[in-house]
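Q: Could you predict the 3D structure of ArsC/Spx/MgsR family protein?
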Amino acid sequence: MEIWINPACSKCRGAISLLDAEGADYTVRRYLEDVPTEEEIREVLERLGLEPWDITRTQEAAAKELGVREWPRDADARDRWIAALAGHPRLIQRPIITADDGTAVVARTEEAVREALGRK
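A: Sure. Here are the predicted structure tokens for ArsC/Spx/MgsR family protein:
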């Protein structure tokens, strides 16, 4: 199990605390420092069952500068969104937990963290 975090994020700290309390075996990826490649983002999106616009933080300054709110949300624009996430990792929703069963969750709630813990 791996968790993508920004240590300054309270949701990330809460997810880590819950993982620790449950004795989970996991690794931490500080994705602002160890930026995911476009291929890694594609893989996580596949595991999440989501599209890149679903995990984009559209209120971030970089999102506003890029104008992502006006970008199309379709197959033709998918690569553009993924490139933006790789180029501006602050745009990636957090935390993301990749579970051992090959799935992933955006773990912004205790329920989502517990869901990831329950996956084998």
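Q: Anything worth pointing out?
A: The chain has five helices and four strands.
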